[in-house]
Structure formats: structure tokens, C-alpha cells
């Protein structure tokens, strides 16, 4: 299957993408991984991206599109893929369509993870990260540490990242509404969008998505 996963920050796209890709036996292709791989490998696109990032500028769509297309050329994506974080805007969505058309293939579905805005803010603003090991993540409401401000695993200090402050989260949501939400209407016109309520346990959301894709139990 060839799937695009969309949803606001805090909707759980990364988590769901990993579960779905594993269940569907297709590669999970995330924008973050594309950037990290290209930059670490020193590819021409990675060098371009790093130059923009080091200057504090946004990476142009052309660079991101180039990375995505290069990744889709790899053998493991021949039988399907799950795109997470790409396309991020209409220009990228249109470029993806042109690329796929050139290959004689089409998307099977665009999964839209739907979460109320207040819940998004609560999810992100409540996150607390361990300073010793950023893989240790807690939540002020949903996954509290045994001792406030202290990591259960290693005893490190828990803190709130700048990106997780409520005012920053709301700004990120504004960007999502203005730049990314329009691609949902774009794909609705192609009758590809399947809306998945993303409240509830991770496993429940995954089951809803698999069922919507006709792969339920």
C-alpha cells in the first residue's frame, strides 16, 4: 500500500506510522529521518539542506521533494510506503503526484489523524523530557513520574522543552492550519482521505486505521 499520514502536531503520527508500517510491511518514511540521513551521509541534497538550516532559514521545498523522491527510488519502497511529514504543503503534494504519475502508480489512501486542538496542546505542553536521556519521556498528566521532576529510569532532571511551551504549540498549530491542512482538501478532491479519530490508546487508533484500510482483523 502507498499511504500518506497527516495530522496536527501531537496527533501521534510518528507512533502510528511505526505501528502501521510494521503491520503493513512497508517502509516508514519520515521527513525527519530523510533530513538526518542525507545530512549525515553528506549527500548533495543534505549539504544544501544543512546550509539553509545553519543559516537559520527554512529548507526550500525543492530540496525536501528531492530527498523524498530519492528515498522512494530505493528498492524497499517499490511495493509500498508510508509517508510521514511529507507532503507538508500543496506544492509538495502536487510534486508527489507528478512523481507517482511518472512511475505509473497512485496513492491508496491519505490517513488524517483527527485530534481536538485543546487535546493537542495538552499532550505537547504536558511533556517532560529527561536531561540525561531524551528517550525517557513523561507527561504531567498522562504518564507522571513517581517523584515530580525526576526521571523514574535514571534519576535525571525532567524539563519542558522550549518547543513544548503552550504558546509555541499554538503557533505550530497555526502553521499546520495554514500550510498543511490545505492538502487534506486537495486529497479529498481525489477521494483519498480517510479520517481516523486519534483519541484513545495507541493500539485502538492503530486498529481504527487498519480497519479503515481494509486490513482489520
TrEMBL record:
Residues 127-163 form the Adenylate kinase active site lid domain. It comes from the Bacteria. ATP binds at residues 10-15, 127, 137-138, 200. It is found in: Cytoplasm. It catalyses: AMP + ATP = 2 ADP. Pfam families: ADK, ADK_lid. GO terms for biological process: AMP salvage. InterPro entries: Adenyl_kin_sub, Adenylat/UMP-CMP_kin, Adenylat_kinase_CS, Adenylate_kinase_lid-dom, P-loop_NTPase. Its EC number is 2.7.4.3. One of its GO terms (molecular function) is AMP kinase activity. The keyword Transferase applies. AMP binds at residues 31, 36, 57-59, 85-88, 92, 161, 172. Keywords: ATP-binding, Cytoplasm, Kinase, Nucleotide biosynthesis, Nucleotide-binding, Transferase. Residues 30-59 are annotated as: NMP. Pathway: Purine metabolism; AMP biosynthesis via salvage pathway; AMP from ADP: step 1/1. One of its GO terms (cellular component) is cytoplasm. Catalyzes the reversible transfer of the terminal phosphate group between ATP and AMP. Plays an important role in cellular energy homeostasis and in adenine nucleotide metabolism. Consists of three domains, a large central CORE domain and two small peripheral domains, NMPbind and LID, which undergo movements during catalysis. The LID domain closes over the site of phosphoryl transfer upon ATP binding. Assembling and dissambling the active center during each catalytic cycle provides an effective means to prevent ATP hydrolysis. Monomer. Belongs to the adenylate kinase family. PANTHER family: NUCLEOTIDE KINASE. This is Adenylate kinase. It comes from Streptomyces benahoarensis. The lineage of its organism: Bacteria, Bacillati, Actinomycetota, Actinomycetes, Kitasatosporales. The gene is adk.
Amino acid at each position: 500500500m502507498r499511504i500518506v499520514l497527516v495530522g496536527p502536531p501531537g496527533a501521534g503520527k510518528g507512533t502510528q506510522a511505526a505501528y502501521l508500517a510494521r503491520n503493513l510491511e512497508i517502509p516508514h518514511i519520515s521527513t525527519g529521518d530523510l533530513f538526518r540521513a542525507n545530512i549525515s551521509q553528506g549527500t548533495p541534497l543534505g549539504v544544501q539542506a544543512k546550509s539553509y538550516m545553519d543559516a537559520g532559514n527554512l529548507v526550500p521545498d525543492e530540496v525536501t521533494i528531492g530527498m523524498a523522491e530519492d528515498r522512494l527510488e530505493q528498492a524497499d519502497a517499490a511495493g509500498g510506503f508510508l509517508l510521514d511529514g511529507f507532503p507538508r504543503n500543496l506544492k509538495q503534494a502536487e510534486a508527489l503526484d507528478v512523481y507517482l504519475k511518472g512511475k505509473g502508480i497512485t496513492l491508496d489512501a491519505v490517513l488524517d489523524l483527527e485530534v481536538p486542538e485543546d487535546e493537542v496542546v495538552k499532550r505537547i505542553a504536558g511533556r517532560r523530557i529527561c536531561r540525561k536521556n531524551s528517550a525517557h519521556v513523561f507527561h504531567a498528566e498522562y504518564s507522571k513520574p513517581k517523584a515530580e521532576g525526576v526521571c523514574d529510569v535514571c534519576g535525571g532532571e525532567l524539563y519542558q522543552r522550549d518547543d513544548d511551551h503552550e504558546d509555541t504549540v499554538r503557533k505550530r498549530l497555526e502553521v499546520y492550519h495554514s500550510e498543511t491542512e490545505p492538502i487534506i482538501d486537495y486529497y479529498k478532491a481525489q477521494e483519498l482521505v480517510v479520517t481516523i479519530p486519534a483519541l484513545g490508546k495507541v493500539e485502538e487508533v492503530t486498529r481504527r486505521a487498519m480497519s479503515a484500510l481494509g486490513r482489520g482483523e
